[in-house]
Amino acid sequence: MNSIDAHIISLIIFLPLLASFVVALLPSLRVAKIVAFAASLATFIASLHLWFHFDPTSVDLQFVEQLPWMPELGVSYLVGVDGLNLLLILLSTFLTPLLLLSIWEFSGEGHKSLMALLLVLECGMIGALVAFDVVLFYIFWEVMLIPMYFIIGIWGGKNRIYATTKFVIYTVSGSLLMLVAAIALYFYHGEQAGFYSTSLLDLYKLAAAGGIPGEEYLFLAFLLAFAIKVPLWPFHTWLPHAHTEAPTVGSVILAGVLLKMGTYGLLRFAIPLFPQAVLLYAPSILALAVVGIVYGALTAWVQEDAKKMVAYSSVSHLGFVVLGSLAIVGNQLSAEALTGAVYQMINHGLSTGALFFLVGMIYERRHSRMFSDFGGLAEVMPYFALMLIIATLSSIGLPGTGGFVGEFLILLGVFQAQPLVAILATSGVILGALYMLTFCRKILFGPITHVANRQLVDLSRREYLYITPLIVLTVFMGVFPELFLSKIRSSVGHLASNFQHYHLKIAGVHPAASDAEPPVDESAVIQP
Amino acid sequence: MVSTFTPLPSSFYQAASPFLVLSVCALLILLSGVTKLAKNSCCIFVLTNIAFGATLLGVCCLSLPGRYLQDALVVTPLSIFLQLLLLGFAWLLAILTYFSHLRGDFFRSELVALYLFVLLGMMVFSSSEDLVSLFVGLEISSIGLYTLVGYTRVTRFSLEGGIKYLVLGSFATALLLFGFAFLYAVTGSLQLPVMMAAIASGQPSLWLTLGASFTIFALGFKLALVPFQQWSPDAYEGAATNITAFMTICVKIMVLSLLIKILGWVSESLGGTWVYVLGLMSVASMLFGNIMALIQSSIKRMLAYSSIAHSGYMAIALGVMEPGNSFPARALLFYLLSYALTSLLVFGIILSLEHRQGEAIQLNDLKGLAKRYPWLACGLTVGMLSFAGLPPTAGFLGKFFVFNAAVQEGHFGLVLCAVVASVISLFYYLHLVVMMYMHAPGKFVVENPNWISLVPRGILAGAGIGVLALGTILPGLVLALLQGLFG
Amino acid sequence: MLGVILLSPLLGAVLNGFVVPKANKMLAHLLGVLAIGLSFGSALLLFQQFLAGGGEPSITYVFEWIQAGKLRVPVEFVVDRLSALLLLVVTGIGMLIHIYAGGYMREEKTTFRFFAYLNLFIFMMLLLILANNLLLMFVGWEGVGLCSYLLIGYWYSEGANADAGMKAFLTNRVGDFAFLIGIFMTYRLFGTLSFSELRAVVSSSASFDAYTLQQLTLITICFFGGACGKSAQLPLSIWLPDAMAGPTPVSALIHAATMVTAGIYMMTRLNFLFYLAPFTMEVVAWVGAGTALFAATIAAVQWDIKRVLAYSTVSQLGYMVLACGVGAFDAGVFHVLTHACFKALLFLGAGSVIVAMHHEQDMRKMGGLWRSLPITHALMLIGVLAIIGFPGLAGFFSKDEILWRAYLYPGSGHYLWAVGAFTALLTSFYMVRLLALTFYGKSRLDHHTGKHLHEISSIMWAPLIILALLSIGVGYLGVPGLLAIPGVKPHILADYLEPIFAVHQQVKETWAFAGAHHEPFWEALLMLVSVVLVFLGSSIALFSYARSSQPNLGPWPAPGARLYHLLSNKYWLDELYARFIYSPLGDIGEFLWRIFDIKIINGLLNGLGYTILGISGFASFKMSGSVHRHAIFMIAGMLALLYFLL
Prior knowledge:
The complex is a heterotrimer of chains A (528), B (487) and C (646).
Chain A: H1 3-25, H2 29-53, E1 62-70, E2 75-81, H3 83-102, H4 111-130, H5 134-155, H6 160-193, H7 200-209, H8 215-229, H9 238-245, H10 248-273, H11 275-301, H12 306-325, E3 328-329, E4 332-333, H13 335-366, H14 377-380, H15 382-396, H16 402-417, H17 419-443, H18 461-479, H19 482-497, H20 511-516
Antiparallel strand pairs in A: 1-2, 3-4
Helix pairs in contact in A: 1-2, 1-4, 2-3, 2-4, 3-4, 3-10, 3-13, 3-18, 3-19, 4-5, 5-6, 5-10, 6-8, 6-9, 8-10, 9-12, 10-12, 10-13, 11-12, 11-17, 12-13, 12-16, 12-17, 13-15, 13-16, 13-18, 13-19, 15-17, 15-18, 16-17, 16-18
Chain B: H1 10-32, H2 41-62, E1 66-68, E2 73-75, H3 77-98, H4 103-106, H5 109-126, H6 131-149, H7 156-187, H8 192-201, H9 206-223, H10 231-238, H11 241-270, H12 272-293, H13 299-319, H14 327-353, H15 369-372, H16 374-388, H17 394-408, H18 412-438, H19 454-472, H20 475-485
Antiparallel strand pairs in B: 1-2
Chain C: H1 2-19, H2 25-51, E1 58-68, E2 71-79, H3 81-104, H4 111-130, H5 134-152, H6 159-190, H7 195-204, H8 210-231, H9 239-242, H10 248-257, H11 262-269, H12 271-274, H13 278-299, H14 305-325, H15 329-356, H16 374-388, H17 394-408, H18 413-439, H19 447-452, H20 458-473, H21 492-497, H22 520-545, H23 561-568, H24 573-623, H25 627-645
Antiparallel strand pairs in C: 1-2
């Protein structure tokens, strides 16, 4: 691995962080805006480097960086990229420049701090995605939370305080349980393997060696933390509040990437670490996911507030992703469903991100999100109507858009595992069309009832700049999915086929070495 | 029988030099009160700086490890580290007070002398392993603190706090003496190591349990653990902010220095029930502290309850100590360090925000602080995040290590209560952040913003960066350092 | 060649939609027609190979679409006799309608949008026809549904049109739901989705065990569900009449000629599966017959000219499905062909009448137009004669073929034939009624429209002439063996399509086939009966509606009044669906959101928060107070702890 590859990930993580400090300290707003945008663009280009140099055939971890952080406890700064998190990293680095662009002419005060917080958020997201050490993952998981708390809290809507406090407390209580479970796992691994390490690669070996006593409780703790984040059905009530109160830019990034942390966490931590518990609880989680799909769709249909509707639609869409990641055929996960789940995460990010941007645009114009205030906008804003229709079609999952590929693969895979569940979930396809088309019908079609709607001006050049990439990419992902699927296929296949004795090793390091010599030197280890 | 007077070895003078220097300087400051120099607080400030500097020099270079005066004075790397902590934080607090509205009230010669004597008492306590000198050290510091709590004399409330602290404190001291007496009766010697050996070898007897428990309860009082916590809210709110800060930080360091040494042995010999009792006390104080802090309106009272909660978290690590494994002790010290640093940051900011009359800042006074003083608000937010235990800050790692220690012993119940308590604590810590960032600015205005001159600003920034760095970059280093302390 | 066929409509759509200057209506029309003309030309060339009798089916691989786990879905197109034929129909009829639409949409201001959608529709339809695997066909399938949604709701400023569009899309989506389940089952059973591989697996395996047969029945039922959604069969037929909200060329192209026949095309493409599932075939046959009868009865009482035609389309589709049900897929395709011609002719004719009458569609305000609209009247006459099965025209041959093959169907063949024949009677009644109400009898025009009545421009009746010629000529592709017409080989189309159908020998004997020699006597008799029925129906219609005196414009006289009321309310099907599916869903949604979400889950969480606040309030009240209370508390606490220790 040449020198760039050795440091590319740390660059991608800490460049936004550095940029956020610079932006916060810069006196002039204009310079700050340019610096912020340039930094996020640079991060995106760096992540493109990851995309081009990623070797899709190998199953191992690539671009790995390992530094001893707390050798005392076996905690190390271990980051890497494989098929599962490559696309999500690209999604987050792709969305952030668009976000910064969307608040270019931000009228409210505290513009600089908003940009700084967004950059810190990006650093947290990418950190959480690439972390292969449980403690490091947890730290980035919470670092991601704090900027979101401030974004919703400071620039949010009317009762933003209730929404943001509920969001943080709900997520932190879930993740604290996960922390305790992680520590218990860490100690059990210590006794079993002789050396203490929190790196995921070693913990995977533990799971592969054989079940952990009390594995169900650990799995439930992890599951709870991720279920709150996904949000899985009974834990979803924070999402509509958070979305309606968050500013447009907050909703986009929350729906775009933060929700995916939950499902990504399931794939990276919960499933490979506790295979026996997964076999035990998979049916009940599938049931929750299906209920989530139908529940989200029905409640989305009766909403009067556009943002709440899109929020509930996210509950429904992510129900699909959870469905896809837990479709167990025989003693393996179904590779089709898992590929579909990973793919759907990206699609949902793009289509819901686009929907929130569009709702944000009409909110900026009419300062209202209620359907009753709109109607017949297609007359006045034809290009806006075109964008909204394409985004809606992608979120319905019409063939030719990315949504279809993801949803089809998931349903296909789940059908092999549990036909009845698949049939119920496929009904979500109809309900999806129902509430999304009602959404279009109420906003775009019908006569123009409000006189204010007549003078609405169509998309400005800047608004084009940050909405078209999303729309074009959604359609592109629907027509040429192979470009993306080829990158994730081998890793997903590896997870699917042997999720019961899952093992990952660092690319380039031949297995013999990494097994014998534990990453942490023996001497500094505390005696149990 | 006549005890022959054996001349003290020269190494004793070297070891005792910090104590001697500190007491001489304190006396000098006291005497300076007579001359007209005392009117000028700046000159007293210079004298205090000299005192602190000299003592620090004494501790760092002159003291050589060894046991003197039948363990009355024991110098070990651990005790040096604790003394450095005490001196460091006391000094920073003195500097911050000088640059705050309390300069006139505090920097009178007798108060500063008292402040230094209390510090002397704490240093003696933390570096001795003989029951008598322990008691002497504790008494010097406690009595000094009783008066310092009420020195502002302005608000009726501070006097009341001082009196309450005095009455309950004396009750605790009596308890301690009682405990020491029993211990001495059972083990027949005053030196701690000898006692520990006797306890370990002998079978547990009623008197032994009584003696040990009384001692622990008295120290529990000092830490404000649950059954003995009620004095702290009134005392903290009554005292001036710098004394409150001094109490939360230095008293804890002092008490924990002893608990670290003896708890290993006590729980070993007294068996399982002891761990159960300490666990109970820690859970009770965590839950009590956090729940009570939810509805407080004044910041200092809220921070008082939060300090009870933090004592509870530290007590978890105390509960799981055993002689062989030194990890819980190191986790405790790390937690202590992060807690002290965060308290310095938070109280420093409150100090610079306070008015002349010094009545306590209410929570809704802080509305919209972020708009007017963004950097103070940012510092306070970092402090709150660290208290709440959210990751990028030192508070998280402190909690993480303590949880680590507890889970190692399999105390899942304890850890789950700690999780519930910290979720509750999240609410009122973030409530403060909500006030600062998410509300329109109220009528509150800082009396004299120019107080926040360069030096305190530097200290606060240093503390803030320290909290963040400890949470992210430094832990490996600090843990290695602590590892060194325990050999 | 294939690229030109597929890409030119897409290119046309993109150019019209984004590139071409919006205002220029002429350019938009020209571009639209050119794109489809190009495609039609190359389709003709393609058809040449197959005409000469040879032409093996050729599969062209384009690129890898989806690959995940064991699933491999390439973008592959198949050109064989069936798809070449339908290519011809779609592009041919499409081009004619595009030419006609230019005139029809003259006074519209956003015609570029109309032609963009129309071209996109043609592209999606071609994708559906040429797809070589189920998933690619599904892409075309939903794409076509999308275009029909956009085109029905073309005049979206009128709320009702947008709702009609949505209703069409949702009903199609229900059909697609069944189609998807079918696809999943096929993948689970066979492991592949490509038609050629499926066909190879089915024909190569010697016999099928019970499980496979049971699975096959389920698969075919699901596929038939999909076909019902798209071809508006009984359970999902509610959307087609409302689809008339769109402009008439749209109704002509999408809701008469091409899209609605997609269901039949899919069944024909998967005939090797359907043949293996006799139970499904029975269901298909009866649903087809039922829908035909159901729609014909309603059409008899409709007063809106386009609705009559809409219900007649549903009825004719019922015939085609009936044909598929009885195993006569070639007869079904033949009827698709003929129906495309004369139904497009009828719709465009009706369109001309509507344009002439300034968008008046109610027949009660028409009458006696044959003098002022001679050309339209002549063309409509040919169309009506063709559809009712007047001997010699297209309808006669294709409908009789279906009725005959239904009769031969073992088991319930006779009853199917009876239903079909009665529907033929009804068809002739309502079609001639339409003709009589619009063109014959006393003119009921109000003064204003009467004055401005004008014949349609040449650009509109030119395509109509071609369609009329087709309606006459196409019939001779399937002349039954009985009527030895000189110079015309019988069953040309049946022989042409023969290689498409591969009946597995395990079920060979159950199906009756064209050309199988049965007693010619019965065939002749049935033909005679249907001709008599045709004349009977038309004479009743002429008698009651074409007389010069005031025709009966209200409900039927005494005995039929209640029946009339039932029919005019379309058997209350829409209301039933609304009450039993639409509103309950809404109520569940409301309940889930208002009660479950806000009250229960949120209530629980907020409750938890408030209880903790309550505890702290209570505790702080207890705790404040004097020193001695604290001391007592301390001692009590200490004693409790000691108790544990000792």
